[in-house]
Amino acid sequence: MRILYVATDQTVPGTLGGSVHVQSVAEGLAAIGHDVQVLVQKGGDWPAGPAKPARNVNWTSMSPPLGRAELRWARAGAVAAIGREMRADVIMERYYNFGGEGVLAARRLGVPAVLEVNAPIVDYPGSPKARLDRALLFEPMRRWRERICRATDLFVTPQASILPEGVPSSRVLEIEWGADTVRFHPGATGPLPFTRDPQRILCVFAGAFRAWHGVAHFAEALARLHAAGDTRFGAVFIGDGPERARVQAIAGAVPGVTFTGAIPHAQLPACLAAADIGVAPFDPPAHGPLALGFYWSPLKIFEYMAAGLPVVAPGVPRLKALVEHEREGVLYDPAMPAGIDDPAMPAGIDAALVSLADASRRQAMGRAARDRAVRDYGWDAHCRALDARLRALKRTA
Predict the structure, then answer these.
(1) Could you point out which of 65, 124, 174, 347 has its C-alpha 20 to 30 Å from the C-alpha of 197?
(2) What is the DSSP letter of 352?
(3) Residue 371 near residue 324, CB atoms below 8 Å
(4) Which residues pair with 235 in a beta bridge?
C-alpha cells in the first residue's frame, strides 16, 4: 500500500516522544512492505548508525503556514496534491487540535482517512480552551473537531476514552505505542554521555522535563536518601525542558548524579543498557487533561522494559496494567510522603528504590520486563496490528 502520513507538528529526527513515535511507525509500516511518505518538519541531518531512515520511507518537509501550528488545517490542499501525485491508498494523520489537513485531503481524494489520537479530542474539566470556545458563541473549535471526526474512517489510540462519545468501536483500533525492541536491549553498547560509577546503583530518567513528568519528585527522593545516609543510589537524568533547572537545584549536589541534556535518540539504547533501574515518576495531577484518566502510552516505560530495566513508577490504575508490580518493576503509592492509600505498595519513590537494592531481584524483574516488552510493546507488534486494519480499510473503500 501507498501510505501518506501527515505529522507536520513533529520534528524528525528529534529527541521527543512524538518524533520517535512518527519515525517508528513510518519505518515499521515500511518494514512490512508499504511505501510510506511522511510530512514532518525537518529536524536536521540524520545521524549515522541504526537510526538512519529506512528504505521505502520518504521524508518530506512541510511546516504549517507562517510557522503557526494553529494553521495546520490550511495545508489540506497541499497534502491532497501530494497524495494525488503518489496515488495514496490511505492518508494517516497525527491528531492536533488545529489539524485536520490529512483527513480533509483524504476526503478530497476519496481514500480512507486514519487519525492517530495521542491526546484528548474531548475537553477536560476546566479546560481554558473550552472556555474560550464557548466565549466565541458558535464553539468553532468543537465544531471543527466534530467535523474531522465524522470524516475519519479509523481512529488509532491507546485509550478510546479520549475520543468523542458516539464513535463506534468498529472505527477504533485501541493499541499501545511501543519500543524498538531490536535496538533497545540489555546488551546495547555505544558512547555514553556520562561516567558509570560501579559502586552505585544507577537509576535513569529519560524524557522531557515537564511538571507532569514528575522528575522533581525523583530528585527529591534521591536527596532524601542521601540526607538519610543511604548513598547507594546514583542517577543520570537524560533530556531537557522547563523543569530541568529546578531538578538540578534539588539533586545537583547529590553524589553520583549526572545531567546529560538532550541526546540523539540513537544514543539512548546504550544509556539505558548501562543503567540498573528505569524511573518514570509521573505526576498526573500536574497536567489538567489527565483529569480524563492517564491516557498516555508512555514510551519511556516501554523503552526501559525493552532495555531489561525494572521500572519504578506511580501505581495509578493505567500503569498497573502496563507494568506488573513486583514482577516487572515496583509501583509506589504516589500519595506519599503525605499518606499511604495502598498499603500493598512502597511508600513513595524512596522506598521503591530501596526495595530494588538487591541486584538479583533487579535482574529478575529486568528479564521479566524485557519479555513483556518483546511480547506486548514492540513497534513491530503495533505496526502489524495497524497494517491489518489498513488493509481492511482498503478492501472496503
Answers:
(1) 347
(2) H
(3) no
(4) 203, 257
Find out whether 319 and 281 touch, Cβ atoms under 8 Å: no
More confident residue, 377 or 126: 377
Query: Which range, of 121-130, 255-264, 325-334, 352-361, averages the lowest pLDDT?
Result: 121-130
CB 61 within 8 A of CB 86: no
DSSP 86-119: HT-SEEEEE--TT--HHHHHHHHHT--EEEE--S
How far is Cα 5 from Cα 23, in angstroms, rounded to an integer? 10
Domains of the chain with CATH codes:
2-178+378-396 (3.40.50.2000), 201-376 (3.40.50.2000)
Strands (E), 195-351: 201-206, 233-238, 257-261, 277-279, 311-314, 329-332
Judged by average pLDDT, the poorest of 151-160, 177-186, 299-308, 331-340 is 331-340
Determine which helix (DSSP H) or strand (DSSP E) holds 60, and give its type and residue range: strand 57-61
Amino acid identity, position 160 = A
**Rg from Cα positions in the chain:** 22
Alpha carbon 185 to chain centroid distance?
A: 18
Banded pLDDT at 397 (limits 50, 70, 90): low
The single-letter DSSP state of residue 285 is G
Strand order through the sheet with 57-61: 57-61, 35-42, 2-12, 90-94, 113-116, 154-157, 172-174
pLDDT at residue 339 in the model:
36
pLDDT digits (tens, 9 = 90+) for 29-75: 999 999 999 999 887 665 544 555 566 899 999 988 888 878 888 99
What integer pLDDT is reported at residue 366 of this predicted model?
A: 98
For residue 343, the model assigns a pLDDT of 55
Please compute the mean of the pLDDT values over residues 197-201 and round it to a whole number. Answer: 93
Residue in 251, 259, 201, 223 with CA at minimum distance from that of residue 348:
223
C-alpha cell read off for 249: 537545584
